[in-house]
Structure formats: C-alpha cells, structure tokens
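Entry, Tuesday afternoon. Goal for today is a structural model of the target with guanosine-5'-diphosphate bound, before we commit to ordering more compound. Inputs were pasted exactly as handed over by J.K., no edits. I checked the ligand SMILES twice against the vendor sheet because last time a stereocentre got dropped in transcription.
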Amino acid sequence: MKRVACLNTLLTSPEDPKASEKLMDLFNSVRLYNKEQRVNGVVLVSDNALLQILEGESHVLAELIYRFSRDTWTKDTSVILNTDIDVPLFNNWRLKFVKSSTAKNDQYLRKIHKAIVADINVTTPQDERRLALFFSSSLLYASLKKVPEAAEEKEDGQNTFVNKRLSLAAWPKPSQIKPSPEIFKLCSLLSRREAMYETLKQLDLFESAAHLDNCLYLLDGFGLLISATVKEAIVDNASDDKVIVDKTVIDNELPSNRKPQIALVTSNTKPMKKDNPSDRFSQVLRKFISQTKRTRM
Amino acid sequence: MDGIYKKLAIVGEVGAGKTQLINVISEISPFATEEKSSIDIGKEYTTVGIDYGRLTLEADMALGLYGLPGQERFSMLWDMVKQGLWGLLILVKFDEAFNSEALLTILKYFDSEKTELPIVVGISHCDLSNDADEVDAFLEIVTQLLENNGFITPVFPVDPREVESILLLLQVFDSLNTSIEYERELSYAQ
Ligand SMILES: Nc1nc2c(ncn2[C@@H]2O[C@H](COP(=O)(O)OP(=O)(O)O)[C@@H](O)[C@H]2O)c(=O)[nH]1
Ligand SMILES: [Mg+2]
C-alpha cells in the first residue's frame, strides 16, 4: 500500500457560490471514486489550495492524481509525498475545510503533520507557501512551544460566551450531537440571527443555564458556532476576519462508534407563551409526537 | 370553518422516498381511519402528479403533505403549493451522483423572497451504507454547498420508512417555526 500527498490550486475560491456547485460535484465524484477504489485519506481545503493525502493501491492513486491534474478546476498539481506504508493513517475518506486556526483544527492538523512530515519533499517556493496554508509555521514548531489544547475554554471560571454575539456557522451532524428538541430550537434560532449570550439565557430554551452552556460548548467544540465580541461591529459575517469561524468536523480517525454522542435531556412539552393559532398547532403537534413516541416504545 | 391547516412540501428526485414518507405519516395520523371513508381530499393534486397525504391532528387541524418531483421542469407544480408553507423538505438520495445544481434550484425557487420558510435537507437511503463516516462525508459536502450559497439549513439522514425518523423531522420543523417566535422576543430584548 502507498501513501501519496499532493498539492493543487483551485482556479476559483471554494466559497464562491458559482464555483461551489461544480466544486462540490467534483468532490462528490472523487468521494464515490475513492469509495469504489478503496482509497482513504483526506482532502484539505484552505483558501484556494488543496492538500490531498491519500492511501491505497499504487495504480489507483496514480490514476486519481492524474485525473486531478487534468481537471479544469485545478492547476499546478505537485506530488509532495510518495511512500510505501504498512500501517494506514486513515480508515475513511474525508473532505475538510480549514478556515482558521482553532484548537480543534490545530489538533487535527498537528496529528496529520506529525505522521507525514518525515516523508514530505517540498522543493519549490510555491509548494512551501501552499503547504504553509495548512501547517502554518506556528503549527510546525508547535512541539517546541506546547500550544494549549483548548485555548478558548474557561479562563478563571469565566464563561467564554459572556458578552458575545453568537450565531450558527452550520448545523451539527447527528453523529456530533444527538438531536433533541432543545438543540433544534437553539440551532434554529442561531441559524436565523445573531443573539447575545445573555439574551439566550433569558429565553428559557433549556431547563437550566448550565444546559445551555453545555450545548454551546458542544457546538463551539465542533467549530459550528460563530462568536464575536460585542465591541466589534459586524458588517458582514462572511468577510469579517474578526469573527471566528471554524468548520472543523470530528476527527476522522475515530471509529464512528467512539464519536461523542451527547444526549440532552428532553422536555419537549414546555408551554408556549402566547396563544395564537400557530402556537396551538405547535402544541398539538408536539403532543402528538410525544404520544406517538410513547405508544411505539 | 375556522380550522388550522398547514402545508409541508416534500421535493425530491424519483425514488428519494416522497411517496413512502407521505404514506407513513398519513397512516399514523390519529384520524387516519375516518379520513379514508370521507371525501377524497387532494384529488386535484393527485391528478396532476402531486403526491398528497395528510396528518390530521384534530377534527379541525391538519398538516397537508405534498410530494413534488424535483426537476425544475415541474416548477408549475411547485407553484401550486408554494404559498404559505409551514416547511419545505428536500429529500436527497444518499450516494447517488448528487446534483448540486438541482438542489440549489429548488432552494432558490422556494426561498426566492428570502422568506422565513423553514427548510430541511433530508438524506434518505443512508441505511444502505454501513459506514457512518461515509455518510458524514456526504453530509459535509451537501452542508458546505448550502453554506457557500448562504443557506444555513439542517442536513441530516431521514428514513422515510421509519416513524421515529419522521417524528424527528416534524420536531425540527416545529422548532424552526417556533424559533420565529423566540426571534421576536429577542428583537425585543436586544
Ligand atoms: N432502504 C431504504 N429504502 C428507502 C428509503 N427511502 C425510501 N426507500 C424506498 O425506496 C423506494 C422508492 O421510494 P418512493 O417513496 O416511491 O420514492 P419517490 O419516487 O420519491 O416517491 C421505495 O421502495 C421506498 O420504500 C430509505 O431511506 N432507505
Ligand atoms: Mg412517488
């Protein structure tokens, strides 16, 4: 078995709506191809650069890289690692968008970097630059500096969300957080608008404030939460680099049955505050849902 | 008549599971038996190729279910149910050569006025894979596509054959709808 890593440059930004259609179709065809050909690994996307680390049969990998180099959406393919391996690093194929440096991202990238660094062979300045987009210099020397694992977590017992505007970058996947009415409510709300942490607390979405915190920490841990300090004026979420956005998903070396699945207490019969027809519909629907669940258990 | 009638549109390619989902919900409807004996509701829809079913919650309260083909050439059918929807479910079959353009076309068509329409993208046939990571990789691609196009929409596996799965789905739509209420409270508070 072989491990190959290669760099590519995308001709358009992966965040350009027009390009993303084609790009996601491309990734999906790669996903299907890799599944069929038993190729595991990861495709990392950072800005316009792609770093693919792939493991599989040598001729299959060669074919894949050839295809990518011919694809009209990418240019400047260069293979920076090509080695025989006995023990694979990956047990599946993943696509990952690396958007900013967060504890979760760094941890994942550091792990990958550590595993492949000895075999990397970069010869041009362009490749060095592209590689640095994934493994920034601070990360390369992380072993010397000892970066704290969860930098954003509590400082002097202070809740990190205090005085922050929060919104949702993406919905959690069921494998990350077990679905519950509370989590749906919180995510629904945050996907539609920003909310101050303090205001969220007043809404009584959860049984307790601790519950809310727990949920927010979970979302944050998976890089699904966008938070900004109130002082910073938010003009445009997408381009404001003060806003911390991180779309890390769960480490893909973990077998799925070991992924955290946090169940949140269910209390889906909280009465609605106002008494309009919509609320009546909602109430009756919820009653129906909980009754049907009960009778089917 | 002063009843409450809400509409849920279910859009998806052939084989995505629309008919199955509508049938399963209609069957668990508390008033399912009475309904069969009454006048055939929804005939005007079924004759033009829209799947119709309903979840009758009380004598004067129901959720109508409209199954619509996913291709844009059927957009005149979409127009028939588009107004005042309670929710839009887009069903995408897992592991097919997934069509980004078709998905975005549906989203943009239904959400053309950037309304507050609650939208969920349900991925069916996930049970055909026995690898959860593989399903996650697919969810990631779909999520990223939506995100890049400005849609923060829940994407999760749905099994149209399973009552549990459908109840969860209804719960999400309920949350999305009621969060609009919370939103009002929020604008008040901030
Ligand atoms: N295994 C599996 N079968 C499904 C799933 N969803 C739908 N089906 C089956 O796929 C077939 C097509 O579904 P149908 O509801 O007719 O699709 P429609 O064309 O969208 O109306 C039926 O046999 C369903 O039972 C699913 O999630 N898993
Ligand atoms: Mg059908």
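The pocket of magnesium ion (ligand 2) is lined by residues B 18-19, 51 (CB under 6 Å).
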